[in-house]
Design a protein that fits this description.
Keywords: Cytoplasm, Hydrolase, Nucleotide metabolism. Nucleoside triphosphate pyrophosphatase. May have a dual role in cell division arrest and in preventing the incorporation of modified nucleotides into cellular nucleic acids. 36% of the residues lie in helices and 24% in strands. The chain is α+β, with helices and mostly antiparallel strands and 202 residues long. The chain starts with 7 loop residues before the first strand and ends in a 6-residue tail after the last helix. The structure holds 2'-deoxyguanosine-5'-triphosphate.
């Protein structure tokens, strides 16, 4: 890597986000940002802030928290909200909550409001929001219980209580949007920015 390229930091604890960027060949450091997402989400909802703006606020908060340590670094922050018929869902606390959440989402369509921001030199230099639209089958409880047993606690790390990659594909009747955005990172717009910013080879 050329010496004058900025250090890239992903302000995230998400294994899914890290895997997407690593698979795309990005070389970066991943540092979790200690941000009280629940508090920011609750305040945004109370103020009637639209999901896309709330997701950008959360992504900014994570990037800012990490960028303070190294203003020269290019810090990537992401956030993903799940909205189904106006109701915002969060990562389930445990498997029973994952079961209840999947029962609430089955047979319905939900949006994954997925924001990504880049911060450098003390401010946001780029942002993008993608909104994949996910339509779930009206799957049976027997199917649901088999899915939960097969996947286990990892489902608590996903805002939708599912993993599209793998068995989770069987939950869906229709998907509008690209898989990296569903997994939490609008990848191609981000890579385009990184090339334009001189961080990736053109
Ligand atoms: N593996 C997988 N993960 C998914 C899928 N859909 C959503 N997710 C994950 C990506 C993110 O880790 C999480 C969205 O929640 P957040 O945006 O709050 O991120 P999280 O708290 O996990 O990490 P971060 O805030 O970036 O430190 O859900 C999927 O289909 N497969």
């Amino acid at each position: 890597m050329q010496a004058d390229l900025p250090r890239i930091v992903l302000a995230s604890a998400s294994t899914a986000r890290r895997a997407v960027l690593e698979a795309a060949g990005l070389r970066f450091e991943a540092l979790p940002a200690a941000v009280d997402e629940a508090e920011i989400k609750a305040a945004a909802q109370a103020e009637g802030i639209p999901p896309a703006d709330a997701a950008l606020m959360l992504a900014d908060a994570k990037a800012e928290r990490i960028a303070r340590r190294d203003p020269e670094a290019l810090v990537i922050g992401c956030d993903q909200l799940l909205v189904c018929e106006g109701v915002w869902f969060d990562k389930p606390a445990d498997l029973p909550a994952a079961r209840a959440q999947l029962q609430a989402l089955r047979g319905r369509t939900h949006d994954l409001v997925t924001a990504v921001v880049c911060h450098r030199h003390g401010g946001r230099v780029w942002q993008h929001v993608a909104v994949p639209r996910m339509t779930m089958r009206d799957f049976s409880n027997a199917f649901l219980d088999a899915y939960l047993a097969a996947e286990g606690e990892v489902l608590t790390r996903s805002v939708g209580a599912y993993r599209l990659e793998g068995l989770g594909a069987q939950l869906f009747a229709r998907i509008q949007g690209d898989q990296p955005a569903i997994l939490g990172v609008p990848l191609l717009p981000l890579l385009a920015f990184l090339r334009q910013h001189g961080v990736l080879a053109t």
